[in-house]
Automatic annotation (TrEMBL):
Keywords, sorted A to Z: DNA recombination, DNA-binding, Transposition
Cited Gene3D superfamilies: Homeodomain-like, Ribonuclease H-like superfamily/Ribonuclease H
Name by which UniProt lists this protein: IS30 family transposase
Source species of the chain: Vibrio ouci
Pfam families noted in UniProt: HTH_38 (PF13936), rve (PF00665)
UniProt keyword DNA-binding present: yes
């Protein structure tokens, strides 16, 4: 088995699992790593905490040390400024370092690790460059408080998510979508997002408000203007979807509804909404958003390589399966 360096995500996972009481062997099994790798990582990067009078593993400190070692390594000195020209161009398209590495490897191009690309970006920032502005910003995930009952109203005769065809549930073919609305500051101006479950292909529509009339008109227009199949759509229980029956009749696309407050049942859409927040931050107003801007954002997302698609883009993937 080929050894790969621990990633930043793995380091934070180690920290969380240790706080939950897991031992080194258990953490190694969950991360599919050798236990000696985890043991060395913890021992090498633990720091003394004077407030608690004990040593603790700090993932941020560990990641910075790893980046410093990487910057000093002889192996990376073989990369010059010319090697980063294509990387810099792809960064400016808002591709993540991991997407860049996966894509370049896929097409047989010489490439470096995604960690080295991050180091390049931070060095560029220190020199006054702006590449760091194209990195995806981590925003707080949208959470909803759990209640025993759904307070947003009930719809008679709506189809439950468990009734979806197997093709939709197992992502066996394009044409099975998830839908949601994303709001900015205030509640009036917003967008509607449609994401294909199999390919991650995204369509975005501008809404003047969250009324059922505005949503139905925009979704109907998106479906009719698209040359893509629409067989099912899975929604949450928001009131903006209460006139779904009209859309079913007009588009011949069946609607299914997730359980209240179970956002993970529409995980594809939730993840995509997080990506959209890079362009439309949560605390910013959407009053300036036009359909043209929505199309531009969707175009960027659909032309980015995705890890789960073998670093093909959603655009390439959906057309390959039609």
């Amino acid at each position: 088995m080929k050894y790969t360096h621990l990633t930043e995500k793995e380091r934070y996972t180690i920290s969380i699992l240790r706080k939950q009481g897991l031992r080194t062997a258990g953490i190694a099994r969950l991360l599919n790593r050798h236990k000696s790798t985890i043991y060395r990582e913890i021992e090498r990067n633990k720091r003394y905490n004077k407030y608690f009078d004990r040593y603790s593993y700090q993932p941020g400190y560990a990641q910075q040390r790893a980046r410093n070692r990487l910057a000093r390594s002889r192996r990376n000195k073989r990369y010059g400024e010319t090697d980063f020209r294509l990387v810099a161009a792809l960064l400016q398209l808002d591709w993540s370092p991991e997407q860049i590495v996966g894509f370049l490897r896929r097409i047989g191009q010489k490439t470096m690790s995604h960690e080295l690309i991050y180091q390049y970006v931070w060095n560029n920032k220190a020199e006054g460059g702006m590449l760091w502005k194209h990195l995806r910003q981590s925003t707080k995930q949208r959470r909803k408080r759990y209640r025993s009952n759904d307070s947003r109203g009930r719809l008679a005769a709506k189809k439950h998510i468990s009734e979806r065809p197997a093709e939709a549930e197992l992502r066996l073919e394009p044409g099975h979508w998830e839908i949601d609305t994303v709001i900015g500051r205030g509640t009036k101006h917003c967008i509607v997002t449609l994401v294909d479950r199999m390919t991650g292909y995204t369509l975005i529509g501008q809404l003047d408000d969250r009324t059922t009339n505005s949503l139905n008109n925009r979704v109907k227009k998106i479906i009719k203007q698209s040359d893509l199949p629409f067989k099912t759509i899975t929604a949450d229980n928001g009131t903006e979807f209460h006139q779904y029956a009209q859309l079913e009749k007009q588009t011949k696309c069946l609607f299914f509804f997730a359980n209240p407050y179970h956002s993970w049942e529409r995980g594809t859409n939730e993840n995509t909404n997080g990506l959209i927040r890079q362009y439309l931050p949560k605390k910013a107003s959407m009053s300036h958003v036009t359909q043209r801007l929505c199309n531009q954002i969707a175009g960027k997302l659909n032309s980015r390589p995705r890890k789960r698609l073998g670093f093909f883009t959603p655009q390439e993937y959906i057309h390959a399966h039609l």
